[in-house]
Amino acid sequence: MSEAVSGSKAFQVASYIATNVQNILYGVELVFYFKTMQVLLRQGQRGQRTKSNIFYAFFSSMMFFLITVWVVTQVIFSETMWIQEQDYPGGPGQWSASHMSIWYMDLGTTAAIVLQLMTDALMIYRCRIVWNSYRIIVAPSILWVATLGLGIVVDWTSSSPEGNFFEGLPSILGLSYYTISALLNTTVTCIICYHIVRHGTRLKNQLGQEYAYPYFDVVSIIVESVLPYTLSGIAFLVSFGTGSPTSAVFLSVYIMAMCISPQMLILRVILRRARNDDRGRTPVTAVKFSAGGISTTSEESAVAVHFHANVYVPGNENNV
Known about the structure:
320 residues; mainly alpha; two-stranded antiparallel sheet; 11 helices; 71% helix; globular
């Protein structure tokens, strides 16, 4: 994106919309974060202070801190551009294009990159949980290392004097960085969705639609695969690659989705609707075979037959 575009009126309008959108989404993140901490505190009071809960509390707090840094820096930059520097030669747009590398914007960029690396790492971890295999995450892990290296370079170039993420070398490196990141997100999302739907189909053929329902629940698939994060990343990549001023809006949505999507997943996990490795195996249902056929019972812990296939069930911490 050229300086003429990044300082244009269209870009300023997009930046204004982006600021308001991210403030609304920040409110959504506040709700999910405090709900997560409330559940974790209640579980701790009941003596359920597990290592996973401590990790999720720390991870959620780190994400909340980083997204807060991003939002605050964007608000300060917008206020300075449109209020304090409205008489700057060339207008607020020119001031914005010339001061993208101001120190607090560098801080916000760093926070966004760290947040993205954390979210991508969590997605890779969930992929391993769903597949119960380390081999499936080899390719995503390689892509994650590539984003780590490029992220450091992008942060350094955009933070240099006169640096501007939307133009010049930082823009080219940023496009490469977000291309690899979007590829990573898309790969992991497709792997998770494929696994869930495949096992849902198998379970439907074996036990019927009633037991396969969790696999085809739209909310389960969206949350488990962190789909909003992936889709917003693709939308930003397309707009940024074409040099559209709307990239400012999609960037804000993308960065907020980096925090909201994993926070939804963590909340789902701690509410015992998603599987994690800190719990033992629990059967989905009790199945009894009799001479007359197959019967099922809903009694908890009453199990006559165990299916030994390691099957991931969205919405439950169970194996079938």
